[in-house]
Design goal:
The chain has 11 helices and 11 strands. The chain has helices at residues 18-21, 36-45, 79-93, 112-122, 136-142, 175-183, 188-194, 197-204, 210-221, 242-274, 302-311, and strands spanning 2-6, 30-31, 34-35, 53-56, 70-73, 99-104, 129-135, 151-152, 157-160, 163-167, 225-229.
């Protein structure tokens, strides 16, 4: 499956991250020694279920790298337009592509195993869209004080994931609805209202479950879909505010330091394992000492034997 990485956001003066971005793309803000997006590209590099990577919003001059074939598209101005352009590039690369991964560049804690798990879990069915959510207790256990935007449902409180899967035809269907929902992504009640009075009423009165929400939204749009409930917080921990940036910087710096400490031990273990065993030269056994030969008594002469016989 091909992945689209959205990296078109440039923080403006009223954005909390403006001072960190310094007029450049948010994706290039430093996190533990490398651009935020590079952590995401590293995860996609090592994911066995990813083929091509399309980066929307940056150019090759950004110097970001990926082990998978990587293609760049310029910023289209709006998030939905960037996603649509990314899907068009994927279809240009592979006319047989049915699904795409849509990945935000601001989830630097993402790991390759998260990517592979999502692809393998989603592709057990053939729905139009797979949208991930993370329960608040999972997020707060892994990242205490993250202050994510949570949607309070009847059965759980969740925040949205920043890596999802969609069928390629979603880039050409229901675009007005998608634009409306994306523009309200930080306001759960506004999103519920966009789905109709019934949905907003259930949400406002605390009666809307996750299953109800999925059923109502997909029916309203005219598609099929599944909610992917994450048991890991990393794919859902994005960077929107300075405290979230600092939280992830500290977390990833600890990971880098831990890897550096382990590296010499791993190298030493490999060296010991690879070292050839010393050949043991067998010592030649000392020759066995011969036991001294017993002196045999001389045989009696015939004359003596005859005298002895006569005496008897």
């Amino acid at each position: 499956m091909d992945a689209i990485v959205t990296a078109g956001g440039i923080p403006q003066p009223n954005d909390p991250l403006y001072a960190y971005a310094k007029g450049e793309s948010k994706a290039m803000i430093d996190v533990a020694g490398k651009p935020m997006i590079q952590w995401v590209l590293d995860a996609l590099s090592d994911a066995k279920n990813v083929d091509n990577v399309v980066v929307v919003g940056l150019s090759p001059k950004s110097s970001v790298t990926c082990k998978k074939p990587m293609h760049f598209i310029s910023n289209q101005g709006r998030m939905l337009a960037n996603i649509v352009a990314g899907v068009e590039k994927v279809r240009e690369l592979n006319r047989k592509a049915n699904y795409v991964l849509i990945v935000s560049s601001d989830i630097p804690a993402l790991k390759s195993e998260h990517v592979d798990w999502l692809v393998e879990t989603a592709m057990q069915t053939k729905d139009d869209i797979y949208y991930g959510v993370c329960p608040s207790e999972v997020m707060e256990t892994r990242f205490p004080g993250s202050k994510r935007t949570y949607t309070p449902l009847k059965d759980m409180k969740v925040c949205g994931a920043d890596i999802n899967i969609a069928h390629v035809r979603m880039a050409s269907e229901h675009l007005e609805i998608w634009e409306n929902l994306i523009s309200k992504r930080k306001n759960p009640f506004a999103q519920a209202t966009a789905m109709g009075f019934g949905t907003s009423f259930l949400y406002a009165t605390g009666q809307l479950t996750l299953e109800d929400a999925v059923e109502r939204v997909t029916k309203r749009i005219g598609i099929t879909g599944r909610a992917i409930v994450w048991e890991q917080a990393e794919p859902c921990m994005d960077v929107d505010k300075p405290h979230q940036l600092e939280l992830l910087r500290e977390d990833l710096e600890h990971q880098v330091a831990a890897s550096a400490r382990q590296a010499p031990e791993v190298a030493k273990a490999k060296t010991v394992k690879a070292a050839p065993k010393k050949k043991t030269v067998a010592k030649k056994a000392a020759p066995a000492k011969k036991a001294p030969a017993k002196k045999s008594k001389p045989a009696a002469s015939p004359k003596k034997a005859m005298i002895k016989q006569r005496a008897k």
